[in-house]
Specification:
Blueprint: H1 2-15, H2 26-46, H3 49-62, H4 67-78, H5 85-98, H6 103-115, H7 119-132, H8 140-153, H9 157-170, H10 175-187, H11 191-204, H12 208-224, H13 228-241, H14 246-259, H15 262-275, H16 280-292, H17 296-309
Helix pairs in contact: 2-3, 3-4, 4-5, 5-6, 6-7, 6-8, 7-8, 8-9, 8-10, 9-10, 10-11, 10-12, 11-12, 12-13, 12-14, 13-14, 14-15, 14-16, 15-16, 16-17
C-alpha cells in the first residue's frame, strides 16, 4: 500500500511541475537535477526502477545536454532489471559526446559491450579509459581489471595477464582479480602460477563466495593434474564455506568417481541434484556410479532423466 501511495505522490508532484520549465532553460536545468535525484532515490532503497527510468528520461527532456541524466539512465538500462544494452550504449555514447573526458563513462559503455559479448569495442573503451586515467585515477583499477576480462574472452591471455597484473598492483586486496589472472595462467597451462593466484584469492577472500570460487578453481586444477586428494580437500572446504551451492558437490563427486569411491560419488551427486535438479550431467555421473556398483535400475532411471533434461 505504501509503495502505491508513493507512486501516486510522485506522479502528482510531476504533474505540478511549472509549465515554465521549458527544455533548455535555467529553470528546466534545475528541474532536471531534481529529476535525477528523484530517480536515484527510487532506485535506492526502494527498487522502483520504472519510476527511476521515467525520472531520468524527464531529466533528459528538460536538459538534453545533461551528462548525468544520460549516464544514470544508461546504468539503469545496463543493470539486471532491464538488461537493454543497446539502449545503455546509446546513452553512454551521448554522454561521451557531451563530455569525452570522463573515464568512468567509457568503462560503463565498455561493460555494456562486454555484456553483449562484443569484445572489440569493449576493449577500445577500456583502453580509452586507461588513456584518460593511466594509473592514478579512481577508475584506473576497474579499467585494467575489465580490460583483463575482455582480453581473456578474446583468448589474448598474455594481454589479459598484463592488465590483471597492473590491476593487482593498484588494488592488491581485491581477490577476484587474482582469480581472473589465475584463469589466464591456467589457459596458458602455466599451472604453477595459476595455483599461486587461486591460493592468493583464497587467502584474501573476505567474502565467502569469493573464497569458495578460489577453492573450486584450485580444486579443479588439482583434479586435472590427477592430484585427487588435494582436489577433494579443496572442494570440501568450498562446501563448508558455501553449502547451498551445488558446484562443489558436483566437482567432488567427479573426483570420487575417478577414484572409484562410488558410494561417495553417489552421495555428492545426490546432494548436487537436491540443490539444483535440472543439470543432466549430475544424473549421468550418478548413473555411472550406480552402474559400477551393479545397480542397473538406478542407472537407467538417471540416464532417462538426463535425456529428458537435454
Amino acid at each position: 500500500m505504501w509503495s502505491l501511495v508513493k507512486k501516486i505522490l510522485a506522479l502528482f508532484a510531476k504533474a505540478k511541475q511549472p509549465a515554465a520549465a521549458l527544455p533548455g532553460t535555467r529553470l528546466a536545468r534545475k528541474a532536471a537535477r531534481h529529476c535525477i535525484k528523484s530517480g536515484l532515490a527510487h532506485i535506492d532503497p526502494d527498487g522502483e526502477f520504472e519510476l527511476a527510468l521515467a525520472d531520468f528520461t524527464e531529466a533528459i527532456r528538460l536538459d538534453p545536454n545533461c551528462v548525468e541524466a544520460y549516464v544514470e539512465r544508461g546504468r539503469l538500462y545496463a543493470g539486471v532489471e532491464f538488461q537493454e544494452y543497446d539502449q545503455a550504449i546509446a546513452d553512454f555514447t551521448e554522454a561521451i559526446r557531451l563530455d569525452p573526458t570522463r573515464a568512468e563513462i567509457f568503462i560503463d559503455r565498455g561493460n555494456a559491450h562486454a555484456e553483449k559479448e562484443d569484445y572489440e569495442p569493449a576493449i577500445a573503451d577500456f583502453t580509452k579509459a586507461i588513456q584518460l586515467e593511466p594509473e592514478s585515477g579512481a577508475d584506473s583499477y576497474y579499467a585494467y581489471s575489465y580490460l583483463g576480462n575482455a582480453c581473456f574472452a578474446k583468448k589474448d591471455y598474455d594481454r589479459s595477464i598484463a592488465n590483471f597484473t597492473i590491476a593487482i598492483r593498484l588494488e592488491p586486496q581485491v581477490p577476484t582479480t587474482y582469480i581472473g589472472r589465475g584463469d589466464a595462467h591456467k589457459a596458458k597451462k602455466d599451472y604453477e602460477r595459476a595455483i599461486a593466484d587461486f591460493s592468493e584469492a583464497i587467502r584474501r577472500g573476505g567474502q565467502v563466495t569469493v573464497a569458495h570460487i578460489g577453492y573450486l578453481r584450485r580444486g579443479n586444477l588439482y583434479f586435472e593434474q590427477r592430484d585427487y586428494d588435494r582436489a577433494i580437500a579443496d572442494f570440501t572446504k568450498g562446501i563448508r564455506l558455501y553449502p547451498e551451492n551445488s558446484d562443489a558437490y558436483r566437482c567432488r563427486a567427479k573426483v570420487y568417481l575417478e577414484k572409484g569411491e562410488h558410494r561417495n560419488a553417489i552421495a555428492d551427486y545426490t546432494e548436487a541434484i537436491r540443490l539444483h535438479e535440472s543439470i543432466a550431467e549430475d544424473y549421468l555421473g550418478r548413473a555411472k556410479a550406480y552402474r559400477a556398483l551393479g545397480e542397473e535400475g538406478h542407472a537407467v532411471s538417471d540416464e532417462r532423466r538426463a535425456r529428458e533434461l537435454r
